[in-house]
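Chapter review: from sequence to fold.
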Amino acid sequence: MNQVVIDPLGKLTAWVVSLGSAKPTLFPFCLNRNDEIGILCFAFQTLFNKLTQVHKNLQEINLRLNHEIRERKSYEEKLQSQQTRLRHLTYKLLLTEERERRRLASELHDQISQNLAICQLKLSMFRESWAAVNTAQAREMNEIEDNLEEIIQETRTLTFEISPPILYELGLKPALEWLLETTCREHGIDTFLEGDRLDNSLSILIFRTVRELLHNIIKHANASETTVRLSQGAHFFEICVTDNGIGFDPEKQYKNIGFGLFSIRERFSSIGGEFSILSKSGEGTRAILKVPYNLKHTV
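The C-alpha coordinate string follows.
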Protein backbone atom coordinates (compact mmCIF):
# COMPACT_ATOMS: atom_id res chain seq x y z
CA MET A 1 0.00 0.00 0.00
CA ASN A 2 2.82 2.35 0.90
CA GLN A 3 4.73 1.63 -2.32
CA VAL A 4 1.63 1.68 -4.51
CA VAL A 5 -0.21 4.72 -3.17
CA ILE A 6 1.44 6.63 -0.33
CA ASP A 7 5.00 6.85 -1.71
CA PRO A 8 3.89 8.08 -5.16
CA LEU A 9 1.55 10.65 -3.53
CA GLY A 10 4.41 11.84 -1.31
CA LYS A 11 6.67 12.24 -4.33
CA LEU A 12 3.90 14.03 -6.22
CA THR A 13 3.35 16.37 -3.26
CA ALA A 14 7.08 17.15 -3.06
CA TRP A 15 7.17 17.81 -6.79
CA VAL A 16 4.16 20.17 -6.62
CA VAL A 17 5.85 22.06 -3.79
CA SER A 18 9.05 22.32 -5.87
CA LEU A 19 7.15 24.14 -8.64
CA GLY A 20 7.42 27.31 -6.59
CA SER A 21 11.22 27.15 -6.54
CA ALA A 22 13.54 28.66 -9.12
CA LYS A 23 14.45 25.23 -10.50
CA PRO A 24 11.60 22.73 -10.12
CA THR A 25 12.51 19.03 -10.23
CA LEU A 26 11.65 16.84 -13.20
CA PHE A 27 8.71 14.48 -13.18
CA PRO A 28 10.08 11.03 -14.08
CA PHE A 29 7.73 8.77 -12.10
CA CYS A 30 4.32 7.11 -12.34
CA LEU A 31 3.74 8.11 -15.98
CA ASN A 32 3.47 4.42 -17.06
CA ARG A 33 0.73 3.54 -14.59
CA ASN A 34 -2.86 3.15 -15.81
CA ASP A 35 -4.59 3.59 -12.46
CA GLU A 36 -5.82 6.79 -10.76
CA ILE A 37 -2.28 7.61 -9.54
CA GLY A 38 -0.92 7.40 -13.10
CA ILE A 39 -3.77 9.51 -14.45
CA LEU A 40 -3.18 12.13 -11.73
CA CYS A 41 0.55 12.19 -12.40
CA PHE A 42 -0.03 12.49 -16.15
CA ALA A 43 -2.41 15.41 -15.58
CA PHE A 44 0.18 17.17 -13.43
CA GLN A 45 2.86 16.50 -16.03
CA THR A 46 0.64 18.00 -18.76
CA LEU A 47 -0.02 21.04 -16.55
CA PHE A 48 3.68 21.39 -15.86
CA ASN A 49 4.50 21.32 -19.58
CA LYS A 50 1.91 24.01 -20.27
CA LEU A 51 3.21 26.14 -17.41
CA THR A 52 6.74 25.73 -18.70
CA GLN A 53 5.68 26.87 -22.16
CA VAL A 54 3.75 29.82 -20.75
CA HIS A 55 6.80 30.76 -18.66
CA LYS A 56 9.00 30.55 -21.74
CA ASN A 57 6.57 32.69 -23.73
CA LEU A 58 6.44 35.26 -20.93
CA GLN A 59 10.22 35.42 -20.87
CA GLU A 60 10.30 36.06 -24.61
CA ILE A 61 7.61 38.73 -24.30
CA ASN A 62 9.50 40.31 -21.41
CA LEU A 63 12.68 40.43 -23.50
CA ARG A 64 10.81 42.08 -26.38
CA LEU A 65 9.19 44.57 -24.01
CA ASN A 66 12.53 45.45 -22.47
CA HIS A 67 13.96 45.95 -25.94
CA GLU A 68 11.02 48.13 -26.97
CA ILE A 69 11.32 50.15 -23.73
CA ARG A 70 15.01 50.74 -24.39
CA GLU A 71 14.25 51.77 -27.97
CA ARG A 72 11.42 54.06 -26.88
CA LYS A 73 13.62 55.63 -24.23
CA SER A 74 16.31 56.17 -26.85
CA TYR A 75 13.76 57.73 -29.22
CA GLU A 76 12.42 59.98 -26.44
CA GLU A 77 15.95 61.14 -25.60
CA LYS A 78 16.62 61.87 -29.27
CA LEU A 79 13.28 63.68 -29.57
CA GLN A 80 14.00 65.76 -26.49
CA SER A 81 17.44 66.58 -27.86
CA GLN A 82 15.91 67.61 -31.20
CA GLN A 83 13.26 69.72 -29.45
CA THR A 84 15.95 71.47 -27.40
CA ARG A 85 17.97 72.07 -30.55
CA LEU A 86 14.86 73.36 -32.33
CA ARG A 87 14.18 75.82 -29.47
CA HIS A 88 17.75 77.09 -29.64
CA LEU A 89 17.58 77.45 -33.42
CA THR A 90 14.22 79.23 -33.18
CA TYR A 91 15.64 81.53 -30.53
CA LYS A 92 18.66 82.33 -32.71
CA LEU A 93 16.35 82.89 -35.68
CA LEU A 94 14.29 85.36 -33.67
CA LEU A 95 17.41 87.24 -32.62
CA THR A 96 18.76 87.25 -36.18
CA GLU A 97 15.43 88.49 -37.51
CA GLU A 98 15.35 91.27 -34.93
CA ARG A 99 18.90 92.38 -35.69
CA GLU A 100 17.94 92.62 -39.36
CA ARG A 101 14.80 94.56 -38.46
CA ARG A 102 16.86 96.99 -36.39
CA ARG A 103 19.28 97.42 -39.29
CA LEU A 104 16.44 98.16 -41.72
CA ALA A 105 14.82 100.57 -39.27
CA SER A 106 18.14 102.33 -38.84
CA GLU A 107 18.53 102.61 -42.62
CA LEU A 108 15.03 104.06 -42.91
CA HIS A 109 15.64 106.58 -40.17
CA ASP A 110 19.23 107.59 -40.87
CA GLN A 111 19.11 107.71 -44.66
CA ILE A 112 15.67 107.70 -46.23
CA SER A 113 13.88 109.78 -43.59
CA GLN A 114 16.77 112.21 -43.32
CA ASN A 115 16.98 112.66 -47.11
CA LEU A 116 13.22 113.18 -47.33
CA ALA A 117 13.41 115.82 -44.59
CA ILE A 118 16.22 117.61 -46.45
CA CYS A 119 14.18 117.52 -49.68
CA GLN A 120 11.18 118.91 -47.82
CA LEU A 121 13.26 121.73 -46.36
CA LYS A 122 14.79 122.67 -49.73
CA LEU A 123 11.41 122.51 -51.43
CA SER A 124 9.94 124.78 -48.74
CA MET A 125 12.71 127.32 -49.30
CA PHE A 126 12.26 127.09 -53.07
CA ARG A 127 8.48 127.52 -52.74
CA GLU A 128 8.87 130.64 -50.61
CA SER A 129 11.22 132.16 -53.19
CA TRP A 130 8.67 131.43 -55.95
CA ALA A 131 5.60 132.54 -54.03
CA ALA A 132 5.81 136.14 -55.24
CA VAL A 133 6.86 135.22 -58.81
CA ASN A 134 4.54 132.36 -59.74
CA THR A 135 1.63 131.69 -57.42
CA ALA A 136 0.39 128.66 -59.36
CA GLN A 137 3.74 126.86 -59.20
CA ALA A 138 4.05 127.81 -55.55
CA ARG A 139 0.73 126.06 -54.86
CA GLU A 140 1.93 122.96 -56.71
CA MET A 141 5.13 123.00 -54.68
CA ASN A 142 3.03 123.30 -51.54
CA GLU A 143 1.10 120.18 -52.56
CA ILE A 144 4.37 118.36 -53.20
CA GLU A 145 5.61 119.47 -49.80
CA ASP A 146 2.45 118.13 -48.16
CA ASN A 147 2.96 114.80 -49.95
CA LEU A 148 6.53 114.69 -48.72
CA GLU A 149 5.30 115.28 -45.18
CA GLU A 150 2.88 112.34 -45.51
CA ILE A 151 5.70 110.14 -46.83
CA ILE A 152 7.95 111.16 -43.93
CA GLN A 153 5.22 110.34 -41.41
CA GLU A 154 4.54 106.98 -43.09
CA THR A 155 8.26 106.22 -43.06
CA ARG A 156 8.43 107.00 -39.34
CA THR A 157 5.41 104.79 -38.72
CA LEU A 158 7.02 102.00 -40.75
CA THR A 159 10.22 102.42 -38.74
CA PHE A 160 8.27 101.91 -35.51
CA GLU A 161 6.43 98.94 -37.00
CA ILE A 162 9.64 97.23 -38.07
CA SER A 163 11.62 97.87 -34.89
CA PRO A 164 10.38 100.46 -32.39
CA PRO A 165 13.36 102.52 -31.13
CA ILE A 166 11.69 103.15 -27.77
CA LEU A 167 11.88 99.42 -27.03
CA TYR A 168 15.70 99.45 -27.17
CA GLU A 169 16.24 102.91 -25.76
CA LEU A 170 13.94 102.61 -22.74
CA GLY A 171 12.85 98.96 -22.47
CA LEU A 172 9.73 96.82 -22.75
CA LYS A 173 7.51 98.55 -20.20
CA PRO A 174 7.92 102.10 -21.62
CA ALA A 175 7.39 100.65 -25.13
CA LEU A 176 4.16 99.00 -23.98
CA GLU A 177 3.09 102.26 -22.32
CA TRP A 178 3.60 104.04 -25.65
CA LEU A 179 1.70 101.29 -27.47
CA LEU A 180 -1.25 101.45 -25.05
CA GLU A 181 -1.35 105.24 -25.16
CA THR A 182 -1.38 105.13 -28.97
CA THR A 183 -4.16 102.52 -28.92
CA CYS A 184 -6.20 104.64 -26.50
CA ARG A 185 -5.72 107.80 -28.57
CA GLU A 186 -6.49 106.22 -31.95
CA HIS A 187 -9.31 103.82 -30.97
CA GLY A 188 -10.84 105.27 -27.82
CA ILE A 189 -10.18 102.24 -25.62
CA ASP A 190 -9.16 102.79 -22.00
CA THR A 191 -5.81 101.07 -21.50
CA PHE A 192 -3.88 100.17 -18.34
CA LEU A 193 -0.41 98.77 -17.72
CA GLU A 194 0.43 96.99 -14.46
CA GLY A 195 3.53 95.29 -13.08
CA ASP A 196 7.25 95.88 -12.76
CA ARG A 197 9.91 96.35 -15.41
CA LEU A 198 10.41 93.15 -17.39
CA ASP A 199 13.08 92.97 -20.09
CA ASN A 200 14.90 90.15 -21.85
CA SER A 201 16.19 89.29 -25.30
CA LEU A 202 12.68 88.38 -26.47
CA SER A 203 11.19 91.74 -25.54
CA ILE A 204 10.50 92.41 -29.20
CA LEU A 205 8.57 89.13 -29.50
CA ILE A 206 6.53 90.06 -26.44
CA PHE A 207 5.95 93.58 -27.78
CA ARG A 208 4.77 92.35 -31.18
CA THR A 209 2.54 89.72 -29.61
CA VAL A 210 0.89 92.26 -27.30
CA ARG A 211 0.40 94.56 -30.29
CA GLU A 212 -1.21 91.73 -32.26
CA LEU A 213 -3.50 90.90 -29.33
CA LEU A 214 -4.51 94.56 -29.08
CA HIS A 215 -5.34 94.55 -32.79
CA ASN A 216 -7.55 91.49 -32.21
CA ILE A 217 -9.28 93.26 -29.32
CA ILE A 218 -9.95 96.32 -31.47
CA LYS A 219 -11.19 94.22 -34.37
CA HIS A 220 -13.23 91.53 -32.61
CA ALA A 221 -13.85 92.21 -28.91
CA ASN A 222 -15.96 95.40 -28.96
CA ALA A 223 -14.20 96.25 -25.69
CA SER A 224 -14.04 99.60 -23.87
CA GLU A 225 -11.13 98.66 -21.61
CA THR A 226 -7.99 96.51 -21.78
CA THR A 227 -5.20 95.83 -19.29
CA VAL A 228 -1.67 94.52 -19.80
CA ARG A 229 -0.05 93.04 -16.67
CA LEU A 230 3.63 92.08 -16.36
CA SER A 231 4.80 89.65 -13.69
CA GLN A 232 7.51 87.12 -12.86
CA GLY A 233 6.64 83.60 -11.75
CA ALA A 234 8.80 80.74 -10.50
CA HIS A 235 9.99 79.70 -13.97
CA PHE A 236 8.45 82.16 -16.42
CA PHE A 237 8.03 85.78 -17.30
CA GLU A 238 4.26 86.19 -17.56
CA ILE A 239 2.36 88.76 -19.62
CA CYS A 240 -1.42 88.86 -19.29
CA VAL A 241 -3.66 90.83 -21.69
CA THR A 242 -7.31 91.15 -20.63
CA ASP A 243 -10.31 92.99 -22.02
CA ASN A 244 -13.95 93.52 -21.04
CA GLY A 245 -15.28 92.72 -24.51
CA ILE A 246 -17.88 90.29 -25.77
CA GLY A 247 -15.62 87.25 -25.34
CA PHE A 248 -15.86 84.05 -27.34
CA ASP A 249 -15.66 80.27 -27.10
CA PRO A 250 -11.97 79.45 -27.86
CA GLU A 251 -12.82 75.94 -29.05
CA LYS A 252 -15.61 76.95 -31.43
CA GLN A 253 -14.35 80.28 -32.75
CA TYR A 254 -10.57 79.76 -32.73
CA LYS A 255 -10.47 79.32 -36.50
CA ASN A 256 -12.69 82.34 -37.15
CA ILE A 257 -10.25 84.70 -35.41
CA GLY A 258 -7.59 83.78 -37.94
CA PHE A 259 -4.12 82.39 -38.15
CA GLY A 260 -2.70 84.98 -35.75
CA LEU A 261 -3.51 83.23 -32.47
CA PHE A 262 -2.28 79.90 -33.81
CA SER A 263 1.01 81.45 -34.95
CA ILE A 264 1.47 83.09 -31.53
CA ARG A 265 1.02 79.73 -29.83
CA GLU A 266 3.50 78.07 -32.19
CA ARG A 267 6.11 80.80 -31.74
CA PHE A 268 6.02 80.60 -27.95
CA SER A 269 5.87 76.81 -27.95
CA SER A 270 8.97 76.62 -30.16
CA ILE A 271 11.04 78.50 -27.54
CA GLY A 272 9.68 76.50 -24.59
CA GLY A 273 7.08 79.10 -23.67
CA GLU A 274 3.31 78.95 -23.39
CA PHE A 275 0.34 80.82 -24.80
CA SER A 276 -3.21 80.27 -23.58
CA ILE A 277 -6.58 82.00 -23.88
CA LEU A 278 -9.36 82.06 -21.30
CA SER A 279 -12.66 83.43 -22.54
CA LYS A 280 -16.41 83.01 -22.32
CA SER A 281 -19.13 84.61 -24.36
CA GLY A 282 -20.11 87.90 -22.71
CA GLU A 283 -17.31 87.75 -20.10
CA GLY A 284 -14.30 89.21 -21.91
CA THR A 285 -11.02 87.52 -22.80
CA ARG A 286 -7.74 86.84 -21.01
CA ALA A 287 -4.61 85.96 -23.02
CA ILE A 288 -1.59 84.69 -21.07
CA LEU A 289 1.97 84.64 -22.43
CA LYS A 290 4.78 82.80 -20.63
CA VAL A 291 8.46 83.12 -21.54
CA PRO A 292 10.98 80.81 -19.78
CA TYR A 293 13.78 82.34 -17.72
CA ASN A 294 16.46 80.28 -19.49
CA LEU A 295 16.12 82.61 -22.49
CA LYS A 296 17.07 85.63 -20.42
CA HIS A 297 19.95 87.22 -22.29
CA THR A 298 20.78 90.60 -23.74
CA VAL A 299 20.41 91.17 -27.47
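Two observations follow directly from the output. Residues 169 and 264 are 25 Å apart (CA to CA). The longest helix spans residues 36-130.
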